[in-house]
Design brief:
This protein is mostly helical. The chain has one domain. Helices cover 76% and strands 0% of the residues. The chain contains 18 helices and no strands. The radius of gyration is 21 Å and the shape is globular.
Length: 397
């Protein structure tokens, strides 16, 4: 157990509670507007809601995966952001609840949920044993039970550690996190097929699950850096977070920028060069009618510009310079999710007020829940056996 002087003063800044209230207010306004959109354009309501759900669930899942990576690898970078990771992972039951509205509008999003279309389409008939509403919902329920269960155990043990509980908790973290990452990879790959790829049930990509995993990691890291920027405006985080912590996070962000670009370009290169009639229409649709400009923006702002800026060690060690890059990537992640989904519903480029209401409404509720979980415990894992060593190694006091 760490000494009382280490634990003292690690309260969550008061600004977190203020952000929680503001986010809740914005979320309610967004959800009211979104509900109004359901009466104006019911199909668009579910299509926009799917984009918002995929994006915000990706932040929770990406944080859960990074939390397990930290428990396996250790490192000071994970200790300073562990509370952020845990708070985001604890939102997964809420995310599961946010999934429920989609069940009532599947026919507006997925062709395989429309019996009249399935009856006329040999491909949909062939895929019907897998792509059908009861099995689809059951799979998603299993995903959330597994994800929420892992998050519950990791945060429960962490809370016990805060209270000076059972010895050897660090070994428990590692024993769960190893198989947990395997479960995460498998379930997220299946969820990518269920939630996103099956929007166009005639198209398939064997690397699509990796694309979603990379995107979630990138969303989570961008979000973490944004939150860290807010927390370091006051004590204790302003004294705890040092340049070497930031350098590690910047390198991780740089790695995920490259990883996601590698996955997406590999998928594009393989499908484009093969030029198969069952695969290529997905890209043709996204290279015409204005969507090609969105793709160009993604290449420039989701990869090229962040890649070039993150090459600098000085930027990676300066939170004021790193935060705008993270914010840019966070915004471009929403654009990328929309680019993955929306062209199936709109021939030309389209971003409407219902899309904005969905992202703001779901996001406001999610951020409010995140802040609620974050403020409930010390901002650092005060009884972690490696905390004092991590802070000493990075010049903290």
């Amino acid at each position: 157990m760490t000494e009382p002087t280490v634990a003292r003063g690690f309260e969550v800044p008061a600004s977190v509670d203020r952000i929680r209230r503001q986010a809740a207010m914005v979320g309610v306004i967004g959800l009211v507007a979104l509900i109004g959109g359901a009466f104006v354009n019911r199909p668009q309501f579910f299509q926009s809601y799917l984009v918002a759900f995929i994006f915000w669930s990706g932040v929770s899942l990406g944080c859960l995966a990074l939390l397990m990576v930290h428990h396996l690898s250790g490192g000071a970078w994970g200790l300073v952001i562990r509370r952020i990771l845990e708070a985001a992972a604890k939102t997964l039951p809420l995310v599961a609840l946010l999934f429920v509205p989609l069940i009532f509008g599947l026919e507006h999003v997925y062709e395989w949920a429309q019996p009249e279309l399935v009856a006329k389409d040999p491909i949909l008939l062939h895929k019907a044993p897998f792509l059908n509403t009861p099995f689809w919902v059951a799979r998603t329920l299993i995903y959330f039970l597994l994800w929420s269960g892992m998050a519950f155990l990791l945060t429960k043990w962490s809370s016990q550690q805060d209270q000076g509980g059972a010895a050897g908790l660090d070994r428990r973290f590692a024993r769960l996190s190893g198989p947990g990452l395997v479960i995460y990879g498998l379930t997220v790959s299946l969820a990518a097929i269920d939630w996103m790829m099956s929007v166009d049930p005639h198209w398939f990509s064997t690397i699509y699950g990796f694309v979603m995993v990379g995107g979630q990691g990138l969303s989570a890291l961008a979000f973490i850096i944004i939150v860290l920027f807010t927390l370091t405006k006051s004590e204790p985080m302003s004294s705890v977070v040092q340049s070497k912590h930031l350098h590690d996070l910047g390198k991780l962000l740089f790695a995920f920028v490259m990883l996601y670009a590698y996955f997406t370009f590999s998928q594009f290169l393989i499908i484009w060069s093969a030029n198969l009639p069952e695969e290529i229409p997905w890209y043709i649709r996204r290279l015409s009618n204005g969507w090609q400009f969105v793709m160009f923006a993604l290449v420039l702002l989701h990869f090229a510009l962040p890649f070039a800026m993150l090459l600098s060690a000085d930027i990676k060690q300066n939170l004021r310079l790193l935060m705008p890059i993270a914010l840019l990537l966070f915004v471009m992640r929403t654009v990328d999710v929309m680019f993955q989904v929306s062209p199936q519903f709109h021939e030309g480029i389209y971003i409407g007020w219902i899309d904005v209401a969905a992202l703001v409404g779901v996001g406001g509720v999610w951020v409010a829940a995140f802040c609620h979980y974050l403020r409930g415990r010390p901002i650092l894992p005060v009884n972690d056996p490696y905390l004092k060593e991590a802070l000493a190694n990075h010049g903290s006091h």
